[in-house]
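Bit of a strange request maybe. I'm writing a small parser for C-alpha cell strings and I need a real example to test against, not something I typed by hand. Could someone generate the C-alpha cells for this chain?
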Amino acid sequence: QVQLVESGGGLVQAGGSLRLSCAASGSIFSINGIGWYRQAPGEQQRELVAAIVSGGRTNYADSVKGRFTISRVNAKTVYLQMNSLKPEDTGVYYCRLPGDFWGQGTQVTVSS
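Reply from user aminoacidic:
Good idea to test on real output. This should exercise your parser:
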C-alpha cells in the first residue's frame, strides 16, 4: 500500500510564496520519478508542473520555470517551492509516483 500526503497549500497574494510538501509512506522503494501536478479550476486534466526524473534531474513546465523548485528532502519527502506566484497558478496540487499513485491534493489559491 502506497500513500502520498500533500500539505502546505493555502491562500496567498500574487507575488508571494508557498512551499508544498509531499510525504510518501508504505511499500515504496524509491521516489524516483515523483512529480507535482496541478489541476486548474474547471479543468479535468492535471498538468505536470515539476518532476524529479532519472539521475536526479528535474523537469519543469515552461509556465513555472525559474519560479518553482522541486527538491528531495529525504528518501520519502519532496518539496515544491513556489515563488513569484501568479493567479494562474491557482489550482489543486497533487503529487504522483510512478505506478499511478496519487495523493489527495492540496489547494493553492493566488489572489490578484
